[in-house]
Amino acid sequence: xxxxxHHEQHSHHERGEQHGEDADHSRRADHGEHAHPGHADxxxxxxxHLGQAGWxxxxxxxxxxxxxxxxxxxxxxxxxxxxxxxxxxxxVLAIVLAFFFGYxxxxxxxRKAGVDFHTALRVALAADTLSIAVMELIDNGVIAxxxxxxxxxxxxxxxxxxxxxxxxxxxxVTTPVNKWMIGRGKGHAVVHQYHH
Length: 196
Hints:
Blueprint: H1 2-82, H2 87-112, H3 117-145, H4 157-183, H5 188-193
Helix pairs in contact: 1-2, 1-3, 1-4, 2-3, 3-4
């Protein structure tokens, strides 16, 4: 009789332990279910915030590159024309100077944040290379395809009209590229970190 009672208590104890484990497991599962939606909401909120900020940053980054490219292109055209160079030589000079001034503007802004020159140069190269390359490809592509634009003199309205339009098209095409890079923590997202 005592043996039977002891056996029942032992069985009940095992069931109790098992039930306790199930309860604990259930609590852990409920906790997991509770935690995941909250985490997802937080992630979704963060993604939305980055998405909204990304376009503004992308436009600003593209405008920054556009300024450097415009300075380089105009200066390259002026120098090439003054030296009597052909279209290809003048275009190459303009592209080189566009990269130079694009990098220089970014380098200057990062250096203002107190970053050493070597680090600032590395950041500028990583942040601007793709952006300037896309901009120069579109910009020079438009000018090359525009009838007579390559042969227009600096005093011609066609030269300035083609240049302004090509830079405008380059801005529109390059902004989504910068947005894509910023969304992945690259490009001007890296530069942005040094201003905060």
